[in-house]
Amino acid sequence: MTNWYVLYVLSYKKEQLIKYLNKYPDVEAFVPKYEYYRRISKDYDIKPMFNGYIFVKSSMEQKEFNLLVAKMYREKEGLLKQLVYPDTSALKKEEIAMFDQLLDERYVVRMSQAYLQDKRAVVTKGPLKYFEDKISKVDKYNQVAYLSLLFMNREIKAGLKIIR
Length: 164
What we know:
Elements: E1 3-9, H1 14-22, E2 27-30, E3 33-38, E4 43-48, E5 53-58, H2 62-75, E6 79-82, H3 93-102, E7 108-109, E8 112-117, E9 120-125, E10 135-139, E11 144-151, E12 154-162
Parallel strand pairs: 3-7, 8-12
Antiparallel strand pairs: 1-5, 1-6, 2-5, 3-4, 8-9, 10-11, 11-12
């Protein structure tokens, strides 16, 4: 079984810490990102979903992962803390399933397309198709949807182009 862990890090040390973690067998560290529309350049770009966070996929159990984190504290600067729940720091099964549906193989939430019907987005294409009922707000101007899927006590943002 694969567990997912979340580490809070100094943003400017993020890439260095990802390289360090990915040296370990059975560890895949990454930053989940989302595709969004840049009005200035009238083009699409990609940015992190959660600034300062690294996600780690591993079959390591909690105790073994804690040892790795403790080693990182000693060897590397930039690790601030591990996101933890009362019983575990690994993400819950529902959260893993949500990210599995949202993220592509490069850990990016790609732009979705939708049309508005009765002030609600009807998603026709993209990963938000699975979460249409969770769209709480649509910003047509910036081509972004806010999902009422709370993660780390915040709504998730994802790219959503409204087509007429």
